[in-house]
Fold:
Amino acid sequence: MADALILAAPSSGSGKTLITLALLRALKNSGLRVVSAKVGPDYIDPRFHEAATGRPCVNLDVWGMRQGLIDALLVAQQDDADLVIIEGVMGLFDGPEKGKGSTADLAKTLGLPIILVVDASHQSQSVGALVHGFATFRRGVKISGVILNRVASERHRRMLTAAIPNDLLIGSVPGLSGLEIPSRHLGLKQAQELTDLQALIASAAELAASTIDLEKLKSLARPLTIEPKLPQFLPPLGQRIAVARDEAFGFAYEHILAGWRALGAELRFFSPLADKPPSPDADAVFLPGGYPELHAGKISVNSHFLDGLGQAAARGALIYGECGGFMVLGRYIADAKGKAHPMAALLPHATSLAERKLSLGYRILKHKGPLPFPSRLRGHEFHYSTLAEPVRGDHLFTMRDATGERLGPAGLRIGLIMGSYAHVIDREN
Structure:
């Protein structure tokens, strides 16, 4: 088995993702066969990882996935690799209110060391108390190293490093303008949107190589000790599945798609933004989440795409949309100014960004109907759009939050056309 370690941070916004990308590329440049994984329900960071390594990145979700699936994904990921770097989610101990789900939970389950990335821009000697607190907060969670990020000056660096045990310090990275990844309302901009991404990663890797002790970092990694298991993937939507994929529909989990392939399904990708219809012989269409609201005007006039969805419905194909895909299956999307952009109208709802409301969190889902997944699922919601007007119809799911509190019905379905705001992660245990 390959060696592995986890990069975590005290909180979101610490610069953990950019440090991860820098290390992935710097270690690759050194000749190491390095791969990565991302903790939690994140679609965006894994694509940045892939840009840095040239190899697929998988999600590992302690709350949303069965342990057997996590193990199987790690076994497959470490094949032909020397080192697996796992980027954490939010703060090290942050997770769902009830049940496991934090980066610390994954680290304890796998017995892996943690490298803590600390944003030092607004502190000096207090960093010692912060590191001590994180290192001693929970038994069985081991902080093996610290990377100080956004260090302002040489004097600042000396003050910081004097407060941290020398055996823990791995590097001190200065804060530099121009080495940031731009964000928007659901997180970072997508990797494919940044034309200068490779130059940014190259610059970050050069900085990491000169300010982080890569040999010390590698020495802290520990072997993965996992028994190989045959995973139980979610069943495919059909034998030939047309999958929307472009800047508007980029939120599909790699483990879901890989599982469908492993079970014999054929995936045929198409771009709604390029006005491409789903494959005419597809017996299922998957519209993942993404940012259709940013492209609503263009999508609304892409007749080949919209007509192609209608033709797929007419020939009896199963059509399933998640979050952004669910929005496109409705009658219209209203933008932030309230302008309505017509969509596929295969389901009777409409969605709007005019009155933004954050819906965020893990979901326990239960369904009865034509969706070929098991009846009990785990998923996640993260969106700002809302239903523009009340709508009646058969709902796809009944839904609870991570604590088990009832959230009521969710989504819609008419025959083989269905969708909801929830992103499915895995089946229930």
Notes: The longest strand covers residues 143-151. Residues 43 and 253 are 7 Å apart (CA to CA).
